Amino acid sequence: MLSDLYFRLRSLLRRRTVQRELDDELRFHVEQQVKKYIESGLTREQALRRSRLEFGHLDQVKEDCQEARGVNFIESLFQDVRYGLRMLRKSPGFAAVAVLTLALGIGANTAIFSIVDAVLLRPLPFKNAGRVVDVTEYSPGKVDSTGVPYPDYLVWKQANTVFDETAAYFLISASNDIVLGGPFSAERARYSTVTNSFFTILGVQPALGRGFSASDETPGAEKVFLVSDAVWHGVFGGDPHAIGKAYLLDGENYTLIGVMPPGFDYPKGCGVWVSVGTLGQFGLHDRISHPFHVLGRLRPGVNLIQAEGQIESFQKRLGEMYPNTDADWHIRAQPLLDEVVGNVRTSLLVLLGAVGFILLIACTNVVNLMLARASAREQEFAIRTALGAGRMRLLSQNLTESFLIVCISVVLAVAFAKGGLTLAVSLTSIHLPRMESFQLSIPVLAFMAAIAALTTLVVGLAPSLQAARKHSQTTLRSGERSAGTDLHSSRLRDVLIVSEVALALILLCGAGLMFRSFLQLNRVNPGFQPEHLLTLKIALPSAAYPRAEQTSAFLDQLLERLQSLPSVQVAAATSALPLSGESDWGSFQIVGRGTQDWAHALAAEGRAVSVDYFRTLGIPLLRGRQFSASGAHHDNGIIINEAMARKFFLGTDPIGQHIVSIDQRSEPREIVGVVADVKSFGLASESKPEMYGLYRGAWYMNFVLRTTQDPASAASAVRKTVALLDTRVPVYQVATMDQLLSDSFAPERFNLFLLGLFAALALSLAAVGLYGVLSFAVSRRTHEIGVRLAIGGQRRDILRLIAGQGMTLVIIGLALGLAASFLLTRLMASLLYDVSATDPMTFGAVAVLLALTAFSACYIPARRAMRTDPLVALRHE
Question: How high is the mean pLDDT of the chain?
Fold first, then answer.
């Protein structure tokens, strides 16, 4: 029978299928024979000599095997793949756990990297976008960031030597809405006033028609405009014949001259662009207003610091020439991408680091599984080594199995990345900049391929080297009983568990800090009562309501009708809603404290409101009185918030004092009341000084209605009420105040959701990894445990032994994790509110949580070991 086996194997070798048959038949027979002889007391040489006598020409078989492996590398690779698939099929539990673990790690990394790539790494779709900078101004102690007066822009444009080209565009704000439509219907769109070089500096040209020319910037020139592709299709029906025709914008005739390409809406959300020539002589020479952002393309060899320094020198010179308007204003320049991205960079980088830790923990878990599996297969590796398989051959086989696991994981990771990202965005209501460009692009797929290759090496190399390091004679002689219990592999698994616990603790500390910050933010008093409030905006066409008296009459009439709706308790109007971030700062001086010019005047946010504004929102009156209902539009008083009273009237009573607005050169107005601070720029932001006055007419206005039922149900009645007054007035941004309050938490909720999810995943993986290692240790020490129990050892001692072994590793991991967390959590300090980045309470709580979870993972295998039957254990092989 043995002779027939040999010749059958020789025949199979000639057909180049020797590896498969060797694994299926020869390996089995040789393994049994060699093991039998070694257990009977023979040495390795004696066992092989006896095997040669029984198998005949074993050396020739080895040579044929080696020759077959060397002839065709591709065939050998295919054999490794087939063998790897068979081994995974034989261990479905191991394969499922390994694949799922790596899929979660790779999928999380891919999802977050796709966001980072779209938001931070991918260049803007503009010409040489990396060299375009955005220039704004700020005034220390008054205004953190604002635009630039148009006359200042002209000076910079003509005198600078750092920019190849410059442009300016109107700073988009809440009031940048324009009304499109005729006498029977109207829609609103965001718009921006731009210079004729705005589109050329971005390298974007109209898809249809033409762009602005120098003649369009001349005051008094024909009024023209361009629209986005979305507005062209939505308002004009995509009609190419619409170009060249006149349409009503804010009730005035404008000629449509072009349509921008699909996807272009810069500044963000802009749908209509008009030329600076529409500002007229006054607007083009106004040195007080700061409405424009300036764009500049850096010349070759010029960096951002040099450009900012030169423009700052120009601004200093302008301050000397025009001290009443330009003094004490400074320049801030930043890459255009930073202006678009805003303040999300830190949170995205923190999340990217978090998912990196998740992948490391996942790899650590799978490496532990592979090490345990390699220990269980030591007899197999020893036999294969005895038959001539070299270390590189074993290394190749193990790496192939790791590669197969990673490949299957990558397929699942793509689904996890897409589904997880969609779920996170939908659950948190976050709107990240450039969100529309999230996709599995080529860089994202390249990143996935890179981490897949790295993961293959990490999870396959250590077990492969461990298997190749073993001496076949030692392993065959030791037998099953001691296989897998060598000191080297045990220490490696211990190091991996310590690392896993430390990484998990870092993530838990970060998530704990975010959770505490979120709780602190939820406790912040917004300054008003958001329940049962409905908000909306309207935009009046300026040509139809050219005078303040007309807009005031319309707003008064609309308020009266809204107040009469059955479900409305009280209604009010305001130029800016709480939590909206809408800024409308103005300069003023306090009468009796000396005369100040505009540049050195005090500054505060101005809010135009109706009489019942404070009653509608439930804003407490702290001192003085509210506006007089009987003297609407004639009450010239001013109500200030507590922040303004603290900053400008510290130690004195502001009631009865007078302030005068320098911007409007108006008559002095008396401060008649002080109200509580309202969070206008987000719950995490400090309340800025604010002053409230009765509206005197405005083209854009917010309305707030306190209802007796679900506020959303009153939206349709509100729309009908506005339409009955004037069909040309669009109603938009209808939302409940609860929705606005919830949306203000969106960035923090997004960070907390993802970081908390990653921390929970890390905690689970760490517990599973610790449980797996201890379970494996118990299974390999069954005979030892039986001996301990047989010679009088107590079961509680076995419990203490196994659990103590695991908890020792946990304690070391906790110590290392706490030290690393103390350093790394400082990087997320800007994301926290009212919580220290090294908060000891949070660190202690998450350490206890992880310790309890780890103890549970240790207790289960320890309890199983405690219940071991000594008689069964002593017979264990």
Answer: 80
Angle between helix axes 304-321 and 150-159 (nearest 10 degrees) is: 120
The CA distance from 120 to 74, in Å, is 42
**What gap in Å lies between CA 142 and CA 513, rounded to an integer?**
32
- What is the pLDDT averaged over residues 753-761? 88
User: Which helix (H) or strand (E) covers residue 507, if one does?
Assistant: helix 487-522
Q: Is the alpha carbon torsion for 485, 486, 488, 489 positive or negative?
A: negative
Per-residue pLDDT tens over the stretch 321-337:
988 888 888 999 999 98
Range with lowest mean pLDDT among 407-416, 419-428, 516-525, 534-543: 419-428
For 227, 436, 639, 782, the CA distances from 188, given in Å and listed in that order, are 12, 22, 32, 77
Concatenate the DSSP letters of all residues of 290-325 into one string: --EEEEEEEPTT--HHHHHHHHHHHHHHHHHH-HHH
CA distance 672 to 688: 19
Listed in sequence order, the residues at least 6 apart from 456 whose beta carbon sits closer than 8 Å to its beta carbon are: 399, 402, 403, 406
Rounded Cα gap, residues 234 and 187, in angstroms: 10
The 3-state DSSP class for residue 575 equals coil
Gap between the Cα atoms of 842 and 835, Å rounded: 10
Tens digit of each residue's pLDDT (9 = 90 or more) over 233-272: 888 888 888 999 988 887 788 999 999 999 898 888 889 9
Classify burial at 182, counting beta carbons within 10 Å of its beta carbon; exposed 0-12, middle 13-18, buried 19 or more: exposed
pTM of the model: 0.78
CA pair distance 163, 157, nearest whole angstrom: 8
Torsion 760-765-770-775 (CA) sign = positive
**What are the pLDDT digits (tens) for 259-317?**
999 989 888 888 999 998 887 766 678 888 888 889 999 999 999 999 999 999 999 99
| Crossing angle between the packed helical segments 58-71 and 44-55, to the nearest 10 degrees | 90
User: Tokens 């969100």 correspond to what residue?
Assistant: 435
Cβ pair 731, 538 in contact under 8 A: yes
CB 130 within 8 A of CB 270: no
Give the per-residue pLDDT at 40: 64
Question: Rounded distance, CA 762 to CA 751, Å?
Answer: 16
DSSP annotation string for 770-823: HHHHHHHHHHHTHHHHHHHHHTT--HHHHHHHHHHHHHHHHHHHHHHHHHHHHH
